[in-house]
Amino acid sequence: MRNPPRRQVLVAAAAGALGLVAPSSARARPMRRLIWVVNQRNEELAATYRREDGGYDFNALARLQHLFRDVRENLPGPLPPQLIDLLAILQESFGFDRPLRLLSGYRTPRTNASIGEAASPRSYHLEGKAADIAMRGIAPLDLALAAHAVSQRLGMMGIGLYGGFVHLDIGPTARWTRIGRG
Protein backbone atom coordinates (compact mmCIF):
# COMPACT_ATOMS: atom_id res chain seq x y z
CA MET A 1 0.00 0.00 0.00
CA ARG A 2 1.40 3.39 -1.00
CA ASN A 3 1.74 6.11 1.64
CA PRO A 4 -0.41 9.20 1.05
CA PRO A 5 1.45 12.41 0.17
CA ARG A 6 2.66 14.35 3.23
CA ARG A 7 0.45 17.33 2.39
CA GLN A 8 -2.63 15.07 2.39
CA VAL A 9 -1.58 13.58 5.74
CA LEU A 10 -1.05 17.02 7.30
CA VAL A 11 -4.37 18.34 6.00
CA ALA A 12 -6.15 15.24 7.31
CA ALA A 13 -4.43 15.58 10.70
CA ALA A 14 -5.42 19.23 10.95
CA ALA A 15 -9.00 18.45 9.95
CA GLY A 16 -9.18 15.70 12.56
CA ALA A 17 -7.73 17.98 15.23
CA LEU A 18 -10.29 20.65 14.40
CA GLY A 19 -13.14 18.16 14.36
CA LEU A 20 -13.86 18.83 10.69
CA VAL A 21 -15.63 15.60 9.80
CA ALA A 22 -18.46 15.28 7.32
CA PRO A 23 -21.78 14.98 9.22
CA SER A 24 -22.72 11.70 7.54
CA SER A 25 -19.39 10.06 8.40
CA ALA A 26 -19.54 11.45 11.94
CA ARG A 27 -22.83 9.62 12.50
CA ALA A 28 -21.58 6.48 10.77
CA ARG A 29 -18.74 5.75 13.21
CA PRO A 30 -17.90 6.33 16.86
CA MET A 31 -16.43 9.65 17.98
CA ARG A 32 -13.05 8.05 18.69
CA ARG A 33 -11.97 4.50 17.95
CA LEU A 34 -8.51 3.15 18.73
CA ILE A 35 -6.84 -0.12 17.76
CA TRP A 36 -3.67 -1.00 19.64
CA VAL A 37 -1.15 -3.80 19.28
CA VAL A 38 1.48 -4.19 21.98
CA ASN A 39 4.35 -5.87 20.23
CA GLN A 40 5.79 -7.53 23.33
CA ARG A 41 2.52 -9.33 24.10
CA ASN A 42 0.60 -9.04 20.79
CA GLU A 43 -2.46 -7.87 22.72
CA GLU A 44 -4.96 -6.07 20.55
CA LEU A 45 -7.81 -3.81 21.55
CA ALA A 46 -10.37 -1.93 19.49
CA ALA A 47 -12.17 0.44 21.83
CA THR A 48 -14.63 3.30 21.57
CA TYR A 49 -13.58 5.23 24.66
CA ARG A 50 -15.92 8.21 24.35
CA ARG A 51 -19.68 8.09 24.68
CA GLU A 52 -21.98 9.85 22.23
CA ASP A 53 -22.42 12.68 24.76
CA GLY A 54 -18.64 13.29 24.65
CA GLY A 55 -17.94 11.80 28.09
CA TYR A 56 -15.41 9.07 28.68
CA ASP A 57 -16.29 5.38 28.82
CA PHE A 58 -14.35 4.42 31.94
CA ASN A 59 -14.55 0.68 31.21
CA ALA A 60 -12.82 1.27 27.87
CA LEU A 61 -10.23 3.51 29.54
CA ALA A 62 -9.52 0.74 32.08
CA ARG A 63 -8.93 -1.73 29.23
CA LEU A 64 -6.63 0.78 27.54
CA GLN A 65 -4.80 1.32 30.84
CA HIS A 66 -4.12 -2.43 30.96
CA LEU A 67 -2.75 -2.29 27.42
CA PHE A 68 -0.50 0.68 28.29
CA ARG A 69 0.92 -1.06 31.37
CA ASP A 70 4.61 -1.69 31.93
CA VAL A 71 4.74 -5.08 30.20
CA ARG A 72 8.15 -5.98 31.61
CA GLU A 73 6.82 -5.83 35.18
CA ASN A 74 3.17 -6.37 34.25
CA LEU A 75 2.14 -3.32 36.30
CA PRO A 76 -0.46 -0.75 35.26
CA GLY A 77 0.16 2.92 35.75
CA PRO A 78 -1.78 6.12 35.28
CA LEU A 79 -3.21 6.82 31.83
CA PRO A 80 -4.52 10.35 31.36
CA PRO A 81 -7.45 10.44 28.90
CA GLN A 82 -5.74 13.40 27.21
CA LEU A 83 -3.03 11.04 25.91
CA ILE A 84 -5.68 8.76 24.43
CA ASP A 85 -7.40 11.79 22.87
CA LEU A 86 -4.13 12.86 21.29
CA LEU A 87 -3.41 9.40 19.90
CA ALA A 88 -6.98 9.01 18.63
CA ILE A 89 -6.81 12.32 16.75
CA LEU A 90 -3.50 11.25 15.25
CA GLN A 91 -4.86 7.85 14.23
CA GLU A 92 -7.93 9.46 12.65
CA SER A 93 -5.63 11.41 10.34
CA PHE A 94 -4.47 8.12 8.80
CA GLY A 95 -7.79 6.29 8.97
CA PHE A 96 -8.68 3.17 10.86
CA ASP A 97 -7.40 0.61 8.38
CA ARG A 98 -4.30 -0.07 10.49
CA PRO A 99 -3.57 -0.11 14.22
CA LEU A 100 -1.29 2.13 16.18
CA ARG A 101 1.54 -0.08 17.38
CA LEU A 102 2.35 0.72 21.01
CA LEU A 103 6.01 0.07 21.74
CA SER A 104 6.08 1.62 25.20
CA GLY A 105 3.47 3.27 27.40
CA TYR A 106 3.72 3.49 31.19
CA ARG A 107 7.10 2.50 32.65
CA THR A 108 8.03 1.76 36.22
CA PRO A 109 11.21 3.45 37.50
CA ARG A 110 13.02 0.10 37.31
CA THR A 111 12.04 -0.50 33.68
CA ASN A 112 12.93 3.07 32.77
CA ALA A 113 16.37 2.72 34.41
CA SER A 114 16.99 -0.58 32.59
CA ILE A 115 16.70 1.19 29.23
CA GLY A 116 19.89 3.08 30.04
CA GLU A 117 20.98 6.40 28.58
CA ALA A 118 18.20 6.33 25.99
CA ALA A 119 15.59 6.99 28.71
CA SER A 120 15.39 10.23 30.64
CA PRO A 121 15.19 9.84 34.43
CA ARG A 122 12.36 12.42 34.20
CA SER A 123 10.57 10.60 31.36
CA TYR A 124 6.85 11.23 30.92
CA HIS A 125 6.53 7.44 30.59
CA LEU A 126 6.95 7.31 34.40
CA GLU A 127 3.72 9.32 34.75
CA GLY A 128 1.82 7.46 32.02
CA LYS A 129 1.86 10.63 29.91
CA ALA A 130 3.87 9.25 26.98
CA ALA A 131 3.66 6.62 24.27
CA ASP A 132 6.20 5.34 21.77
CA ILE A 133 4.28 4.37 18.66
CA ALA A 134 4.59 3.22 15.06
CA MET A 135 2.09 2.44 12.31
CA ARG A 136 2.50 -0.24 9.67
CA GLY A 137 3.09 1.36 6.29
CA ILE A 138 3.65 4.86 7.73
CA ALA A 139 7.20 6.18 7.91
CA PRO A 140 8.13 7.55 11.35
CA LEU A 141 8.84 10.95 9.77
CA ASP A 142 5.32 11.08 8.30
CA LEU A 143 3.87 10.06 11.66
CA ALA A 144 5.89 12.81 13.39
CA LEU A 145 4.78 15.41 10.82
CA ALA A 146 1.14 14.49 11.37
CA ALA A 147 1.69 14.68 15.14
CA HIS A 148 3.22 18.13 14.66
CA ALA A 149 0.09 19.27 12.80
CA VAL A 150 -2.07 18.01 15.67
CA SER A 151 0.26 19.70 18.17
CA GLN A 152 -0.10 23.04 16.39
CA ARG A 153 -3.84 22.89 17.03
CA LEU A 154 -3.62 21.64 20.63
CA GLY A 155 -0.71 23.85 21.69
CA MET A 156 1.12 21.05 23.48
CA MET A 157 2.92 17.79 22.87
CA GLY A 158 6.44 16.51 22.98
CA ILE A 159 7.43 14.73 19.78
CA GLY A 160 10.60 12.68 19.49
CA LEU A 161 11.53 11.13 16.15
CA TYR A 162 13.54 7.92 16.38
CA GLY A 163 14.65 5.46 13.71
CA GLY A 164 11.66 3.13 13.90
CA PHE A 165 9.10 4.95 16.02
CA VAL A 166 7.80 8.27 17.32
CA HIS A 167 7.64 9.29 20.98
CA LEU A 168 4.59 11.40 21.88
CA ASP A 169 3.81 12.92 25.26
CA ILE A 170 1.33 15.36 26.73
CA GLY A 171 3.99 17.55 28.26
CA PRO A 172 4.99 21.01 27.05
CA THR A 173 5.80 21.49 23.38
CA ALA A 174 9.20 19.99 22.58
CA ARG A 175 10.84 18.43 19.52
CA TRP A 176 13.90 16.18 19.17
CA THR A 177 15.33 13.44 17.00
CA ARG A 178 17.54 10.47 17.76
CA ILE A 179 17.80 8.91 14.32
CA GLY A 180 21.03 7.00 13.86
CA ARG A 181 21.94 6.94 17.55
CA GLY A 182 22.32 3.66 19.36
Strand order across the biggest sheet? 2-1-3-4-6-5-7
Number of domains: 1
Low-pLDDT runs: 6-30
Mean pLDDT comes to: 80
The proportion of strand residues reads: 15-25%
Estimated structural class: alpha/beta
GO molecular function: metal ion binding; metallopeptidase activity
Keywords: Cell wall biogenesis/degradation, Hydrolase, Metal-binding, Metalloprotease, Protease, Signal, Zinc
Pathway: Cell wall biogenesis; cell wall polysaccharide biosynthesis
InterPro entries: MepK, TAT_signal, Zn_M74/Hedgehog-like
Q: Could you please describe the fold and organization of this structure?
A:
Keywords: Cell wall biogenesis/degradation, Hydrolase, Metal-binding, Metalloprotease, Protease, Signal, Zinc. Its cofactor is Zn(2+). One of its GO terms (molecular function) is metallopeptidase activity. Residues 6-30 have low confidence and may be disordered. Helices cover 35% and strands 18% of the residues. With 182 residues, the protein is α/β, with parallel strands linked by helices. It has one domain. It has a seven-stranded mixed sheet with strand order 2-1-3-4-6-5-7. The longest helix has 15 residues, at 140-154.
Q: What descriptors fit this protein?
A:
182 residues; alpha/beta; seven-stranded mixed sheet; 6 helices; 18% strand; globular
